[in-house]
Design goal:
Elements (H helix, E strand, L loop, with lengths): L1 E15 L6 H7 L6 E15 L3 E6 L5 H8 L7 E6 L3 E4 L12 H11 L4 H15 L14 H13 L5 E4 L8 H18 L2 E5 L3 H7 L2 E6 L2 E7 H18 L7 E2 L5 E8 L8 E4 L3 E8 L8 E7 L5 E6 L13 E8 L7 E11 L2 E17 L51 E2 L1
Parallel strand pairs: 3-7, 3-8, 5-6, 6-7, 12-18
Antiparallel strand pairs: 1-2, 1-4, 8-9, 10-18, 11-13, 13-16, 14-15, 14-17, 16-19, 17-18
Length: 431
Amino acid sequence: MKVISVESVSKKFILAHDRPKDLADAARGIFRRRKNEDFWALKDVSFDVEQGEALGIIGHNGAGKSTMLKLLTRIMEPTSGRIRTRGRVSALIEVGAGFHPEMTGRENIYLNGSILGMSHAEIHSKLDDIISFAELERFIDTPVKRYSSGMYARLGFAVAAHVDPEILIVDEVLAVGDLEFQQKCLQRMQEVRTSSGRTVIFVSHNLAAVRSLCTTGICIKAGSIISGGPVDTVVKDYLDTLERDCEIGLAETTERSGTGSMRLTDVRLLDGNGCATNALIAGEPTTVKMSYVNPGGVKRANFIFTVYNQTGVPVTNIDMGLTAFSPGPLQESGDFYCTIPELPLPTGRYRVAASIVVGGENADHVNSATVFDVVGSRYFEGGKMPPSRYCTALVAHSWSSEPVVAAELPFAAGVLERPGEHDGPGGATWN
Protein backbone atom coordinates (compact mmCIF):
# COMPACT_ATOMS: atom_id res chain seq x y z
CA MET A 1 0.00 0.00 0.00
CA LYS A 2 1.36 3.43 -0.94
CA VAL A 3 1.74 5.75 2.05
CA ILE A 4 3.49 8.55 0.16
CA SER A 5 2.79 9.60 -3.42
CA VAL A 6 4.67 12.51 -4.98
CA GLU A 7 3.33 13.48 -8.38
CA SER A 8 5.16 15.95 -10.68
CA VAL A 9 6.14 18.22 -7.78
CA SER A 10 8.06 21.44 -8.38
CA LYS A 11 9.03 24.17 -5.92
CA LYS A 12 10.05 27.69 -6.92
CA PHE A 13 11.66 30.35 -4.76
CA ILE A 14 12.10 33.98 -5.77
CA LEU A 15 15.59 35.31 -5.12
CA ALA A 16 15.78 39.08 -4.68
CA HIS A 17 18.94 40.85 -5.84
CA ASP A 18 20.32 44.38 -5.38
CA ARG A 19 19.68 44.57 -1.65
CA PRO A 20 19.81 48.20 -0.40
CA LYS A 21 23.07 49.20 1.27
CA ASP A 22 21.46 51.84 3.52
CA LEU A 23 18.22 53.71 4.16
CA ALA A 24 18.85 56.23 1.38
CA ASP A 25 19.52 53.44 -1.10
CA ALA A 26 16.30 51.72 0.02
CA ALA A 27 14.35 54.97 -0.54
CA ARG A 28 15.74 55.33 -4.03
CA GLY A 29 14.84 51.72 -4.67
CA ILE A 30 11.14 52.52 -4.26
CA PHE A 31 11.26 54.07 -7.70
CA ARG A 32 13.39 51.34 -9.24
CA ARG A 33 12.28 47.91 -10.24
CA ARG A 34 14.12 45.32 -8.19
CA LYS A 35 15.76 42.44 -10.00
CA ASN A 36 14.36 39.07 -8.98
CA GLU A 37 15.36 35.60 -10.09
CA ASP A 38 13.28 32.43 -10.15
CA PHE A 39 15.07 29.53 -8.51
CA TRP A 40 13.59 26.05 -8.93
CA ALA A 41 14.66 24.00 -5.91
CA LEU A 42 12.69 21.00 -7.25
CA LYS A 43 11.61 20.32 -10.82
CA ASP A 44 8.97 17.74 -11.79
CA VAL A 45 9.79 15.23 -9.04
CA SER A 46 7.73 12.03 -8.79
CA PHE A 47 8.10 8.94 -6.60
CA ASP A 48 6.05 6.59 -4.41
CA VAL A 49 6.86 5.01 -1.04
CA GLU A 50 5.22 1.79 0.11
CA GLN A 51 4.21 0.97 3.68
CA GLY A 52 7.16 -0.45 5.62
CA GLU A 53 9.69 0.85 3.10
CA ALA A 54 12.84 2.72 4.16
CA LEU A 55 13.70 5.32 1.53
CA GLY A 56 17.07 7.06 1.51
CA ILE A 57 17.39 10.45 -0.19
CA ILE A 58 20.93 11.42 -1.18
CA GLY A 59 22.57 14.13 -3.25
CA HIS A 60 24.88 17.13 -3.16
CA ASN A 61 24.43 20.02 -0.75
CA GLY A 62 21.78 22.28 -2.27
CA ALA A 63 20.37 19.53 -4.49
CA GLY A 64 16.84 19.90 -3.05
CA LYS A 65 16.73 17.13 -0.44
CA SER A 66 15.70 19.27 2.53
CA THR A 67 13.16 21.14 0.41
CA MET A 68 11.58 17.79 -0.46
CA LEU A 69 11.30 16.89 3.23
CA LYS A 70 9.69 20.24 4.06
CA LEU A 71 7.11 19.58 1.36
CA LEU A 72 6.44 16.07 2.70
CA THR A 73 5.90 17.47 6.20
CA ARG A 74 3.67 20.33 4.96
CA ILE A 75 6.05 22.99 6.23
CA MET A 76 5.89 24.33 2.68
CA GLU A 77 3.52 23.79 -0.20
CA PRO A 78 4.67 22.84 -3.70
CA THR A 79 4.49 25.41 -6.49
CA SER A 80 2.97 22.72 -8.70
CA GLY A 81 2.19 19.02 -8.45
CA ARG A 82 0.62 17.02 -5.65
CA ILE A 83 1.77 15.15 -2.53
CA ARG A 84 -0.41 12.60 -0.75
CA THR A 85 0.43 10.89 2.55
CA ARG A 86 -1.47 8.29 4.61
CA GLY A 87 -1.11 8.25 8.39
CA ARG A 88 0.59 10.33 11.06
CA VAL A 89 3.96 11.86 10.10
CA SER A 90 6.72 12.47 12.64
CA ALA A 91 9.68 14.49 11.43
CA LEU A 92 13.07 15.64 12.69
CA ILE A 93 14.42 17.94 10.01
CA GLU A 94 15.85 20.84 12.00
CA VAL A 95 17.66 20.84 15.33
CA GLY A 96 15.55 22.55 17.95
CA ALA A 97 12.46 22.97 15.77
CA GLY A 98 9.43 23.14 18.05
CA PHE A 99 11.51 23.89 21.17
CA HIS A 100 11.11 27.00 23.33
CA PRO A 101 14.56 28.11 24.56
CA GLU A 102 13.33 29.37 27.93
CA MET A 103 11.53 26.13 28.77
CA THR A 104 13.21 23.08 30.30
CA GLY A 105 13.86 19.87 28.46
CA ARG A 106 10.93 18.23 30.27
CA GLU A 107 8.56 21.06 29.34
CA ASN A 108 9.75 20.97 25.74
CA ILE A 109 8.98 17.26 25.50
CA TYR A 110 5.34 18.08 26.19
CA LEU A 111 5.44 21.06 23.79
CA ASN A 112 7.17 19.23 20.96
CA GLY A 113 5.14 16.08 21.45
CA SER A 114 1.92 18.09 21.19
CA ILE A 115 3.14 19.72 17.97
CA LEU A 116 3.81 16.24 16.58
CA GLY A 117 0.25 15.13 17.42
CA MET A 118 0.67 13.30 20.73
CA SER A 119 -1.90 13.69 23.51
CA HIS A 120 -0.85 14.84 26.99
CA ALA A 121 -1.56 11.37 28.38
CA GLU A 122 0.48 9.70 25.64
CA ILE A 123 3.45 11.99 26.29
CA HIS A 124 3.19 11.38 30.05
CA SER A 125 3.22 7.61 29.57
CA LYS A 126 6.36 7.78 27.40
CA LEU A 127 8.16 10.55 29.28
CA ASP A 128 10.67 8.33 31.09
CA ASP A 129 11.48 6.41 27.89
CA ILE A 130 12.06 9.66 25.97
CA ILE A 131 14.35 11.08 28.67
CA SER A 132 16.28 7.82 28.93
CA PHE A 133 16.69 7.53 25.15
CA ALA A 134 18.00 11.11 24.95
CA GLU A 135 20.44 10.39 27.83
CA LEU A 136 19.60 13.75 29.40
CA GLU A 137 18.46 12.70 32.87
CA ARG A 138 20.80 15.19 34.60
CA PHE A 139 19.77 18.11 32.41
CA ILE A 140 16.09 17.45 31.75
CA ASP A 141 14.99 20.29 34.07
CA THR A 142 17.50 22.75 32.60
CA PRO A 143 16.31 25.37 30.05
CA VAL A 144 17.19 24.10 26.58
CA LYS A 145 18.85 27.41 25.68
CA ARG A 146 21.79 26.02 27.65
CA TYR A 147 21.88 22.79 25.63
CA SER A 148 24.56 22.09 23.06
CA SER A 149 23.52 21.32 19.48
CA GLY A 150 24.12 17.64 20.21
CA MET A 151 21.81 17.72 23.23
CA TYR A 152 19.16 19.48 21.12
CA ALA A 153 19.40 16.76 18.50
CA ARG A 154 19.19 13.96 21.05
CA LEU A 155 16.08 15.40 22.68
CA GLY A 156 14.44 16.19 19.34
CA PHE A 157 15.05 12.72 17.95
CA ALA A 158 13.94 11.04 21.17
CA VAL A 159 10.56 12.80 21.00
CA ALA A 160 10.09 12.19 17.27
CA ALA A 161 11.04 8.51 17.59
CA HIS A 162 8.44 7.87 20.31
CA VAL A 163 5.45 9.36 18.49
CA ASP A 164 4.64 5.95 16.96
CA PRO A 165 4.07 7.52 13.54
CA GLU A 166 3.10 5.73 10.37
CA ILE A 167 5.85 7.73 8.66
CA LEU A 168 9.13 8.81 10.33
CA ILE A 169 11.19 11.44 8.48
CA VAL A 170 14.75 12.22 9.60
CA ASP A 171 17.15 14.74 8.05
CA GLU A 172 20.93 15.05 8.40
CA VAL A 173 20.54 16.57 11.89
CA LEU A 174 21.94 13.34 13.35
CA ALA A 175 25.34 14.54 12.16
CA VAL A 176 25.61 16.78 15.24
CA GLY A 177 25.37 13.84 17.65
CA ASP A 178 28.26 11.64 18.73
CA LEU A 179 28.93 8.37 16.92
CA GLU A 180 27.41 6.20 19.66
CA PHE A 181 24.16 8.19 19.63
CA GLN A 182 24.03 8.13 15.82
CA GLN A 183 24.18 4.34 15.96
CA LYS A 184 21.46 4.35 18.59
CA CYS A 185 19.24 6.49 16.35
CA LEU A 186 19.83 4.26 13.33
CA GLN A 187 18.94 1.21 15.43
CA ARG A 188 15.75 2.92 16.61
CA MET A 189 14.75 3.77 13.03
CA GLN A 190 15.42 0.17 12.04
CA GLU A 191 13.18 -1.00 14.90
CA VAL A 192 10.42 1.42 13.88
CA ARG A 193 10.49 -0.02 10.35
CA THR A 194 10.89 -3.75 11.04
CA SER A 195 8.89 -4.29 14.23
CA SER A 196 5.81 -2.26 13.39
CA GLY A 197 5.87 -1.93 9.62
CA ARG A 198 6.35 1.84 9.76
CA THR A 199 7.78 3.83 6.86
CA VAL A 200 11.08 5.70 7.17
CA ILE A 201 12.41 8.55 5.02
CA PHE A 202 16.10 9.24 5.72
CA VAL A 203 18.28 12.01 4.30
CA SER A 204 22.00 11.72 4.98
CA HIS A 205 25.47 12.24 3.49
CA ASN A 206 26.58 9.14 5.41
CA LEU A 207 26.20 6.62 2.61
CA ALA A 208 27.10 3.69 4.86
CA ALA A 209 24.19 4.62 7.17
CA VAL A 210 21.84 4.98 4.19
CA ARG A 211 22.83 1.54 2.87
CA SER A 212 22.49 0.00 6.31
CA LEU A 213 19.02 1.39 7.04
CA CYS A 214 17.31 1.84 3.68
CA THR A 215 15.96 -0.61 1.15
CA THR A 216 15.39 1.87 -1.66
CA GLY A 217 16.69 5.30 -2.54
CA ILE A 218 16.51 8.31 -4.78
CA CYS A 219 19.36 10.61 -5.77
CA ILE A 220 18.53 14.28 -6.38
CA LYS A 221 20.75 16.59 -8.40
CA ALA A 222 19.89 20.23 -9.16
CA GLY A 223 16.29 19.65 -8.13
CA SER A 224 15.63 16.55 -10.25
CA ILE A 225 15.77 12.83 -9.55
CA ILE A 226 18.68 11.31 -11.50
CA SER A 227 18.48 7.81 -10.00
CA GLY A 228 15.91 5.74 -8.13
CA GLY A 229 15.56 2.09 -7.13
CA PRO A 230 17.43 -0.37 -4.88
CA VAL A 231 19.60 1.57 -2.46
CA ASP A 232 22.91 -0.03 -3.54
CA THR A 233 22.25 0.95 -7.16
CA VAL A 234 21.34 4.51 -6.23
CA VAL A 235 24.45 4.93 -4.04
CA LYS A 236 26.66 3.65 -6.88
CA ASP A 237 25.04 6.08 -9.33
CA TYR A 238 25.65 8.92 -6.88
CA LEU A 239 29.32 8.02 -6.42
CA ASP A 240 29.69 7.87 -10.21
CA THR A 241 28.32 11.43 -10.49
CA LEU A 242 30.82 12.61 -7.88
CA GLU A 243 33.69 11.22 -9.93
CA ARG A 244 32.35 12.85 -13.10
CA ASP A 245 32.07 16.16 -11.24
CA CYS A 246 35.77 15.92 -10.35
CA GLU A 247 36.62 15.68 -14.05
CA ILE A 248 34.93 19.03 -14.77
CA GLY A 249 37.58 20.99 -12.87
CA LEU A 250 37.19 22.70 -9.53
CA ALA A 251 37.13 26.27 -10.83
CA GLU A 252 34.26 25.50 -13.22
CA THR A 253 32.10 23.18 -11.14
CA THR A 254 28.69 24.48 -10.07
CA GLU A 255 28.20 21.65 -7.54
CA ARG A 256 29.28 23.74 -4.57
CA SER A 257 27.74 25.67 -1.69
CA GLY A 258 28.73 28.55 0.58
CA THR A 259 28.64 32.32 0.88
CA GLY A 260 31.15 32.87 -1.93
CA SER A 261 33.36 35.26 0.07
CA MET A 262 36.19 32.86 -0.81
CA ARG A 263 36.41 30.10 -3.40
CA LEU A 264 38.56 27.06 -3.96
CA THR A 265 40.11 27.12 -7.42
CA ASP A 266 42.12 23.90 -7.22
CA VAL A 267 42.72 20.93 -4.96
CA ARG A 268 45.44 18.57 -6.09
CA LEU A 269 47.67 15.85 -4.70
CA LEU A 270 51.47 15.93 -4.83
CA ASP A 271 53.81 12.98 -4.33
CA GLY A 272 56.99 13.04 -2.26
CA ASN A 273 58.84 14.84 -5.05
CA GLY A 274 56.21 17.57 -5.32
CA CYS A 275 54.79 16.28 -8.61
CA ALA A 276 51.04 16.32 -9.20
CA THR A 277 49.55 12.83 -9.28
CA ASN A 278 46.35 10.91 -8.67
CA ALA A 279 48.12 7.58 -8.09
CA LEU A 280 49.63 7.39 -4.61
CA ILE A 281 51.60 4.86 -2.58
CA ALA A 282 50.64 4.10 1.02
CA GLY A 283 53.46 4.88 3.43
CA GLU A 284 54.99 7.60 1.25
CA PRO A 285 54.78 11.37 1.82
CA THR A 286 51.73 13.01 0.26
CA THR A 287 50.80 16.68 0.05
CA VAL A 288 47.35 18.17 -0.54
CA LYS A 289 47.57 21.57 -2.25
CA MET A 290 44.53 23.84 -1.81
CA SER A 291 44.37 26.98 -3.98
CA TYR A 292 41.95 29.82 -3.35
CA VAL A 293 40.74 33.24 -4.46
CA ASN A 294 39.52 35.80 -1.96
CA PRO A 295 37.05 38.20 -3.61
CA GLY A 296 35.54 39.14 -0.24
CA GLY A 297 38.83 40.37 1.20
CA VAL A 298 38.65 37.86 4.07
CA LYS A 299 41.56 38.17 6.52
CA ARG A 300 41.38 34.76 8.19
CA ALA A 301 39.82 31.44 7.23
CA ASN A 302 40.02 27.75 8.01
CA PHE A 303 40.81 25.13 5.37
CA ILE A 304 39.41 21.61 5.79
CA PHE A 305 39.27 18.47 3.68
CA THR A 306 37.68 15.07 4.20
CA VAL A 307 38.72 11.85 2.47
CA TYR A 308 36.00 9.31 1.60
CA ASN A 309 36.55 5.73 0.47
CA GLN A 310 34.81 4.14 -2.49
CA THR A 311 31.74 3.21 -0.44
CA GLY A 312 31.26 6.82 0.68
CA VAL A 313 32.54 6.31 4.24
CA PRO A 314 34.70 9.17 5.59
CA VAL A 315 38.10 7.79 6.59
CA THR A 316 39.75 10.99 7.80
CA ASN A 317 39.09 14.70 8.27
CA ILE A 318 42.03 17.13 8.25
CA ASP A 319 41.33 20.55 9.70
CA MET A 320 43.83 23.42 9.72
CA GLY A 321 41.99 24.87 12.73
CA LEU A 322 43.02 21.92 14.90
CA THR A 323 46.71 22.76 14.50
CA ALA A 324 48.99 25.54 15.73
CA PHE A 325 49.58 26.78 12.18
CA SER A 326 48.61 30.46 11.83
CA PRO A 327 48.96 31.72 8.24
CA GLY A 328 48.42 35.43 8.94
CA PRO A 329 46.26 37.75 6.79
CA LEU A 330 45.07 36.12 3.57
CA GLN A 331 45.97 37.46 0.14
CA GLU A 332 43.71 38.01 -2.90
CA SER A 333 44.72 34.51 -3.98
CA GLY A 334 47.10 31.88 -2.75
CA ASP A 335 47.84 28.28 -1.83
CA PHE A 336 48.08 26.17 1.28
CA TYR A 337 49.87 22.83 1.50
CA CYS A 338 49.01 20.04 3.91
CA THR A 339 51.68 17.32 4.09
CA ILE A 340 51.02 13.82 5.40
CA PRO A 341 54.37 12.16 6.21
CA GLU A 342 53.18 8.59 5.58
CA LEU A 343 49.89 8.11 3.72
CA PRO A 344 47.92 5.68 5.95
CA LEU A 345 45.34 4.40 3.45
CA PRO A 346 44.84 0.91 2.00
CA THR A 347 44.64 0.41 -1.75
CA GLY A 348 41.47 1.66 -3.43
CA ARG A 349 39.81 4.77 -4.85
CA TYR A 350 39.15 7.84 -2.70
CA ARG A 351 37.30 11.14 -3.04
CA VAL A 352 38.25 14.43 -1.41
CA ALA A 353 35.65 16.96 -0.25
CA ALA A 354 37.09 20.39 0.57
CA SER A 355 35.88 23.47 2.42
CA ILE A 356 36.88 27.01 3.33
CA VAL A 357 35.23 28.10 6.57
CA VAL A 358 34.97 31.77 7.55
CA GLY A 359 33.53 32.71 10.93
CA GLY A 360 32.05 29.25 11.43
CA GLU A 361 30.22 29.32 8.08
CA ASN A 362 31.14 27.69 4.78
CA ALA A 363 32.50 30.25 2.34
CA ASP A 364 32.94 27.43 -0.16
CA HIS A 365 32.29 23.69 0.04
CA VAL A 366 32.93 21.28 -2.81
CA ASN A 367 31.80 17.71 -2.27
CA SER A 368 33.97 16.37 -5.10
CA ALA A 369 37.19 18.38 -5.18
CA THR A 370 39.32 15.55 -6.56
CA VAL A 371 39.68 11.77 -6.66
CA PHE A 372 42.77 9.61 -6.29
CA ASP A 373 43.84 5.98 -6.16
CA VAL A 374 46.17 4.27 -3.70
CA VAL A 375 47.87 1.77 -6.01
CA GLY A 376 50.55 0.22 -3.80
CA SER A 377 52.12 0.21 -0.38
CA ARG A 378 55.42 0.85 1.37
CA TYR A 379 53.70 1.31 4.71
CA PHE A 380 54.70 -2.09 6.07
CA GLU A 381 57.86 -4.06 5.43
CA GLY A 382 57.62 -6.16 2.30
CA GLY A 383 54.93 -3.91 0.76
CA LYS A 384 52.07 -6.08 1.97
CA MET A 385 48.69 -4.65 2.86
CA PRO A 386 45.68 -5.90 4.85
CA PRO A 387 42.58 -6.42 2.69
CA SER A 388 40.69 -3.11 2.34
CA ARG A 389 37.44 -4.81 3.39
CA TYR A 390 38.95 -5.24 6.87
CA CYS A 391 40.19 -1.68 7.42
CA THR A 392 39.71 1.92 6.39
CA ALA A 393 43.11 3.16 7.61
CA LEU A 394 46.58 1.82 8.33
CA VAL A 395 48.17 2.10 11.78
CA ALA A 396 51.90 2.08 12.48
CA HIS A 397 52.75 -0.67 14.98
CA SER A 398 55.31 -3.24 16.02
CA TRP A 399 55.23 -6.72 17.54
CA SER A 400 57.38 -8.15 20.33
CA SER A 401 57.48 -11.22 22.53
CA GLU A 402 58.82 -9.09 25.40
CA PRO A 403 57.41 -6.03 27.22
CA VAL A 404 58.41 -2.75 25.58
CA VAL A 405 58.39 0.96 26.47
CA ALA A 406 56.09 2.34 23.78
CA ALA A 407 57.44 5.90 24.05
CA GLU A 408 60.86 4.67 22.91
CA LEU A 409 59.60 3.12 19.69
CA PRO A 410 60.57 5.05 16.51
CA PHE A 411 56.96 5.72 15.46
CA ALA A 412 55.75 6.97 18.86
CA ALA A 413 54.25 10.47 18.82
CA GLY A 414 57.02 11.90 20.99
CA VAL A 415 59.84 10.41 18.89
CA LEU A 416 58.63 10.60 15.29
CA GLU A 417 60.39 13.55 13.66
CA ARG A 418 57.81 16.30 13.14
CA PRO A 419 58.17 19.84 11.77
CA GLY A 420 56.97 21.44 15.02
CA GLU A 421 54.33 24.11 15.37
CA HIS A 422 52.51 23.30 12.14
CA ASP A 423 51.71 19.78 13.19
CA GLY A 424 48.21 18.38 12.98
CA PRO A 425 46.84 15.08 14.27
CA GLY A 426 48.60 12.03 12.85
CA GLY A 427 51.62 14.06 11.73
CA ALA A 428 49.85 16.10 9.02
CA THR A 429 51.45 19.55 8.61
CA TRP A 430 50.22 22.80 7.03
CA ASN A 431 52.28 25.49 5.34
